[in-house]
Fold this protein.
Amino acid sequence: MDRTGIFAGDDPFVIAREWLDEATKSEINDPNAMALATVDQDGLPNVRMVLLKEISADAFWFYTNYQSAKGRELEHSGRAALVLHWKSLRRQLRIRGNVTREDGAAADAYFASRSLKSRLGAWASHQSQPLESRGALMARVAKITAQKGTNPPRPDFWGGFRLEPVEMEFWADGAFRLHDRFVWRREGPENEWEIQRLNP
Ligand SMILES: Cc1cc2nc3c(=O)[nH]c(=O)nc-3n(C[C@H](O)[C@H](O)[C@H](O)COP(=O)(O)O)c2cc1C
């Protein structure tokens, strides 16, 4: 297959890391911002931005509140899709797969690495629930700060998710809208990837 340059290599996680590294140099902010798509219990799609925090050997990791709308949707369906769009590179990376909760040592370590204000904010926010006023949230932050002090533990309602892809598609802008697209597909982590070029 004529797959060279920015598409070279057989491990899609390696290519994803290379593209993210490039975007980190060229994007004006948040090169790791990605849209996370879920479906609710009625099958109605939902989408919002989250930050990609790690690309490990077989998964994409992000962090959130487990009781948020996305947290509930992810727990219910066990599936999600992601898309990263880098305007500066004119490239897109699409990812679909199975999602599992990551609420062990890795989540503790990531929580501990966040600023104190962010850690207290995670405690104070009942993410996706109605909020009567900004003042009510600030009052909760003050209360939590007094209760938890300067080293709050990770709340058990907040942590990571890992998405293990069964499909990853790399897209790069080409002349005359003749873009390059390559898709990697596999049944599960134990299977080999099948790689195909797609029509733009
Ligand atoms: C660039 C960007 C990055 C974001 N990153 C996160 C994130 O990593 N985790 C998170 O819970 N929310 C993040 N948010 C907020 C979410 O988009 C969303 O508003 C919030 O998580 C509630 O979504 P939900 O009600 O569907 O659960 C981010 C928003 C933006 C615009």
Summary: The longest helix spans residues 12-26. The CA atoms of residues 16 and 168 lie 9 Å apart.
